[in-house]
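Researcher: Structure for this, please.
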Amino acid sequence: MKKFFTFCLMAVSMLPAAWSQNRDVKIPTESNLGITQTDYSQLKTGFFCVGQVATAYTFNAKPLSIGFTDLEGIAGYRFSDYLRAGVGIGVRYYYNVNDVRNMSHKFGMPLFLDLRGNFIPNDYRNVVPFWSVDLGATFPDGVMFRPSIGARVGQPRSAFIVSLGYVGQNIRTYTDEVGTTGKSAHKFASGVSLSIGYEF
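Model: Predicted structure, token format:
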């Protein structure tokens, strides 16, 4: 009888150890701790920014043939894959400024409204075609209009961009009227534009 009680006592004392070995151990997770993480690279909406270099050359007959390069920054809001709206500002450098522009300095400042969007969703693709339209002015020259199409290479919220398009720019140049040599006139010049940048 004594051996039976001793056996029962040993069996009961071993139950907690056996129970702890078979029990699933729960490791605290971020959801258990009340922490949530958002993958901003996949969000369809929210703020966006673009940094880009845009170069252009007008193809009008002289004296309106002129080349320039812009260093631009754009910031705005992303409504969906198909529409983003923002405001852009930059610094422009003109090349053959003395032949075309009726001013001595070679710099200008573009300020414009930027609209852009994808042609197709960016969910399962690394390369997506997109469109963009810039409308504003370059100071001190005048009105600027720049529609273009291109490609985004990367994630929905982190991609390299390259685009080719038309640029229309009002240029402060010389009048071509007889007897008014050296006088200033604003003329609209058309050309082609190439932009390379990064969107996030």
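Researcher: Any notable elements?
Model: The first helix runs from residue 2 to 22. The mean pLDDT is 83.
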